[in-house]
């Protein structure tokens, strides 16, 4: 995809890049620890096909939790609203993304929302298909359509690195299985989930996907409705209430756009009716959000009045 550079955006990126020194790359998934903490890039994709970008936009990164919005969209299309929300709730937790604390207090056990790991694991469990491979292929193909690039794949190295160290997610799965939320082998689900999280792209792709959410599921460039408007609406609502983990409230006040982050440093933003944003900045703050990416969005939102509130 061709993308214009823009002096104002370049300046904002250089300003925000200063904050990278206050963050750290995630290394609880060992392979993510290799990222360069000073990286910062952004792309903005408009519905008329225009794109502006700044930073090293060709750098690839894995989706990690950013994938949770997309798996939710697929599962809502696969199974419908009632079935999905029978198994996962709609409320923010105020806890870290991998916390088990509130899950234990719910009777019956039901993850509070699809953006925390417990909820995302239940959502990934619901992806339809006859095998892990078929379910993964369906998700990947959906992501390729959203990003309009059939060459998107996943990082075997990062998927494997997470699979080997995912004992907290393993614990969440066993807890959920004990409470009849999962009825497949935990290792199969983790295999699928870690591949999902390891789907790899650059911020141009992420901006394009954000644009589809911003345009209510329609890709105006290809004129394809890639998901029903209602599905896009639900996903954007979760992005506002739970998309930035336990910093979602502060983010809503300071930035005010639907967004979803991942621990590899990606942030996908969807400015309703206007454009999609893709950011990559692997140095994270203590809640697991891209520290410079958050700052960059805050500056953009202030300068261009992007808040929807
Ligand atoms: N917050 C994240 O991006 C977490 C995703 C990561 N794969 C995990 O489950 O730990």
TrEMBL record:
GO molecular function: glutaminase activity
EC number: 3.5.1.2
Protein keywords: Acetylation, Hydrolase
Any Pfam family the entry gives: Glutaminase
Catalytic activity: L-glutamine + H2O = L-glutamate + NH4(+)
Enzyme class (EC, first level): hydrolase
Tree of life domain: Bacteria
GO biological process: glutamate biosynthetic process; L-glutamine catabolic process
Residues that, per the record, bind substrate: 65, 117, 162, 169, 193, 245, 263
NCBIfam families, A to Z: Gln_ase
Family: Belongs to the glutaminase family.
Subunit record text: Homotetramer.
Protein name per its UniProtKB record: Glutaminase
């Amino acid at each position: 995809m061709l993308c214009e550079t823009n002096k104002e955006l370049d300046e904002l990126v250089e300003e925000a890049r200063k904050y990278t020194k206050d963050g750290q790359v995630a290394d609880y998934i060992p392979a993510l620890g290799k990222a360069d903490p000073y990286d910062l890039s952004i792309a903005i994709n408009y519905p008329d096909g225009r794109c502006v970008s700044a930073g090293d936009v060709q750098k690839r990164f894995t989706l990690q939790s950013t994938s949770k919005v997309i798996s939710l969209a697929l599962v809502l299309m696969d199974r419908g609203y009632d079935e999905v929300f029978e198994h996962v709730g709609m409320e923010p937790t105020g806890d870290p993304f991998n916390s088990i604390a509130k899950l234990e207090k719910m009777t019956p056990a039901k993850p509070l929302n699809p953006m925390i790991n417990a909820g995302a694991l239940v959502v990934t469990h619901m992806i339809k298909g006859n095998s892990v491979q078929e379910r993964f292929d369906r998700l990947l193909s959906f992501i390729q359509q959203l990003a309009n690039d059939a060459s998107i794949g996943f990082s075997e190295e990062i998927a494997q690195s997470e699979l080997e160290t995912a004992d907290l997610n393993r614990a969440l799965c066993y807890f959920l299985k004990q409470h009849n939320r999962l009825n497949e082998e935990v290792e199969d689900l983790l295999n699928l989930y870690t591949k999902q999280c390891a789907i790899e792209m650059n911020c141009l792709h992420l901006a394009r996907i954000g644009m589809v959410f911003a345009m209510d599921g329609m890709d105006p460039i290809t004129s394809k409705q890639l998901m029903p408007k209602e599905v896009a609406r639900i996903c954007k609502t979760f992005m506002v209430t739970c998309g930035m983990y336990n910093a979602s409230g502060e983010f809503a006040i300071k930035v005010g756009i639907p967004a979803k982050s991942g621990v590899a440093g990606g942030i996908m933003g969807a400015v309703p009716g206007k454009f999609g944003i893709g950011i990559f900045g692997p140095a994270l703050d203590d809640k697991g959000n891209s520290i410079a990416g958050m700052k960059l969005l805050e500056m953009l939102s202030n300068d261009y009045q992007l808040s929807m509130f």
